Amino acid sequence: MTAFAALSTANYKASVRDKTTVFFTFAFPLLFLVVFGLIFAGQEVEGSGRNYIDYIAPGVLSWGVGNAALFGIAFTLMQWRNDDILRLIRMTPTPLTTVLASRYTGALVIGLVQAVLFVGVALLPAFGLSLAGSWPLALPVLLLGVTAFLSMGVVVGSRANTPEAVAAIANSIMVPMAFLSGSFLPIDLMPAWLQNISRALPLRYMNDGISTALTGSGDLATIGLSSAALAGFTVVFGVLAVRTFRWSNNS
Amino acid sequence: MTTTHAIESSTPSSEEPIVEAGTESAVVLDGVRKRYGDVQAVDGISLTIRRGEFFGILGPNGAGKTTLIEIMEGLRQADAGTIQVLGMSPWPRNVALLPRLGLQTQKSAFFARLTAREHLATVAALYGLPATAAGPALKLVGLTGEADKRVGDLSGGQRQRLAIAGALIHEPELVFLDEPTAALDTQARRDLWQVLRELKAQGRTIVYTTHHLDEAEALCDRVAIVVTGAVIALDTPHRLVGAAHVPTRVMVPVGQLSTDQAGALPGVIRVTVEGGSVVLETTTAGATLAAVGDLIGLDEVQTRTATLEDVYLELTGSETRS
Ligand SMILES: Nc1ncnc2c1ncn2[C@@H]1O[C@H](COP(=O)(O)OP(=O)(O)OP(=O)(O)O)[C@@H](O)[C@H]1O
Ligand SMILES: [Mg+2]
Q1: pLDDT at residue B3 tops 60
Q2: Taking all residues of chain B, what is their mean pLDDT, rounded to a whole number?
Q3: B283-295 burial, b if ≥16 CB within 10 A, otherwise e?
Q4: Class of the B25-243 domain?
Q5: Which end of chain A is more exposed for a tag (fewer CB within 10 A), N or C?
Q6: Do the Cβ atoms of B183 and B160 come closer than 8 Å?
Q7: Number of domains, chain A
Q8: Atom of ligand 1 nearest to the CA of A250
């Protein structure tokens, strides 16, 4: 087995054996989707003429995927550093890039499985999502979104030294961002100044891009802007990630 | 894995220490220093470890042993001094050197939620080896029965043995073990001695720390005693014991010899009564024993010569008192 395959296998086994992670990755976002979806079933959002589910499904999807990407890598890095696993890897000839590539691939696969699951549920008659022909364009946005949140997660995981610190920092980033970016409440219902603030948040762009691709609510330019913005966030947090990365808790 | 052939072909035939240790150097340290805040953890250490040598680093808690080993491994950067490991510098991360080194750290590292076998298979893959390497490594440390247990469910000693298996899985030339026997039970400790002796017989170099002085005496070709970051003694256990002039203790059952009689015998420097014996401390064991033999015969007489532990306590004790 190559180092890449072995690390991916170890990562996969560790993930599926951790019931809490499985719950927060798949069941928890699904819960939001089901609850909001059923409450607002069949209702239109005032002023936009679009269904609630057209907002909520892409919104919960983006938040769930971003959340899992950020938490996943942040927890792993913190834990690997605490357990000295990073030092163990460092003492083998396997390059750090292989470790990161394996984590990256893992995060992309999780994001894809989440997307299929959430969209599949939203398509059920009870929720009533219908896909636009442009839906495949959601894939590049998904990929760029996972990448952006992963790079944020590396920063969080490099700074935080305890599980509590990871959870506190990651939640205080993700929870306000989810509300401000319209993951749970349609962005068109928010006052203009809040909508402007949301333009500074990566989740807003992921929402916009995925929502446009899945429901045809915007045009190709929206998807282009979203992708560009997510790539921009990746560069910024990627630089920060490289600067904050540590092999161990003491130097 | 290209390096193991060289090891096998140079396998020495005798187990005689020193002689078999090559003249080539495995580790050369010169003036190595490392400071953490206001703690001078390593304070100018220079020493050479020969290839094929079993080298012990001894010293009290906080002496700087782990720091020194981590500097040799390339896990830590020294503040000053030069470090050569197998002819190369271990810092910054030296990928050419890494497959030739094996290490078990004092705080062992395991992949989360994997079994013992899965953990070792992952480590093997990081060295570019097949997953099948896990089986022999588990067997080497006697963990075959525990192969499919989660690492978190292993006992402390079993986890330590797993860490040692991880250090040896790629058959490294130079092995660093930081207190490998600390959590092991008596039998597991002896089993590990056997493993370590076999590694040495294969021509590998072993650098290790321990707080078990009997073990260091039994295994090491040479030991360095480190106190507050400096080497205060470095030699074979035999020569350290010989040079220390720690008195030999001759023990005679109480009643056969009075303390006054004992004190008058040649070479006796001190007489005490301990645990049912009159204990004669002597610097010339031969003369004292002959005299005791003349008086009461030697049938029930026991002797205890100085051990590395006595020497260690004398050296480290005087060092910390001063
Ligand atoms: N990361 C660190 N930061 C600050 N001080 C440290 C660090 N690591 C070790 N020290 C200090 O450096 C000194 C040497 O520590 P080291 O771990 O090398 O000792 P040791 O000889 O291995 O001890 P032990 O026998 O307990 O394992 C100690 O005073 C310790 O407190
Ligand atoms: Mg130590």
Answers
A1: no
A2: 88
A3: eebeebbebbeee
A4: alpha beta
A5: C
A6: yes
A7: 1
A8: 1
Residue A189 phi, psi dihedral angles, 5° rounding: -90, -5
Domain ranges of chain B: 25-243, 247-305
On whether residue A249 sits in a domain, the answer given is no
Asked whether the predicted pLDDT for residue A208 surpasses 90, the reply is yes
A83 contacts on B by Cβ (under 8 Å): 109-110, 112
Q: Indicate the top mutation candidate among B34, B35, B57, B65 to test ligand 1's pocket, ranked by most ligand atoms within 8 A of CB.
A: B65
- What is the number of the ligand closest to the CA of B42? 1
Topology at the third CATH level for domain B247-305: Alpha-Beta Plaits (3.30.70)
Indicate if the pLDDT at residue B112 is higher than 90.
no
To test the pocket of ligand 1, the residue of B35, B36, B228 to mutate (highest count of ligand atoms within 8 Å of its CB) is: B36
Helix (H) or strand (E) holding B7: helix B4-9
In this complex, do A9 and B122 lie within 8 Å of one another by their Cβ atoms? yes
- For the entire predicted model, the pTM comes to 0.84
Residues of A near B (Cβ–Cβ under 8 Å) read 1-3, 5-7, 9-10, 13-14, 17-18, 79, 83-85, 87-95, 248
Better-scored residue on pLDDT, A86 or A172: A172
**Which chain B residues contact residue A79 at CB under 8 A?**
112
**Among A182, A228, A237, A235, which Cα is nearest to A204's?**
A182
Please report whether residue A181 resides in a domain. Answer: yes
Domain span at A169: 3-244
Minimal Cβ distance to A14: which of B103, B114, B131: B114
- pLDDT for B246 equals 82
Q: State the Cα–Cα distance between residues B101 and B204, nearest whole angstrom.
A: 10
**Phi, psi angles (nearest 5°) of residue A80:** -60, -35
Express each pLDDT in B253-268 by its tens digit.
998 888 898 899 998 9
CB B214 within 8 A of CB B206: no
pLDDT, one tens digit per residue, over A216-228 is 888 899 999 999 9
Q: Is B65 a pocket residue for ligand 1 (Cβ < 6 Å)?
A: yes
Examine the pLDDT at B6 and tell me if it is beyond 90.
Answer: no
Mean predicted confidence (pLDDT) in A81-85:
87
Chain A residues within 8 A of B110 when measuring between CB atoms: 83, 85
Of residues B75, B108, B126, nearest to A94 (C-beta): B126
Of A1, A14, A90, the CB nearest to B131: A1
pLDDT of residue B319: 55
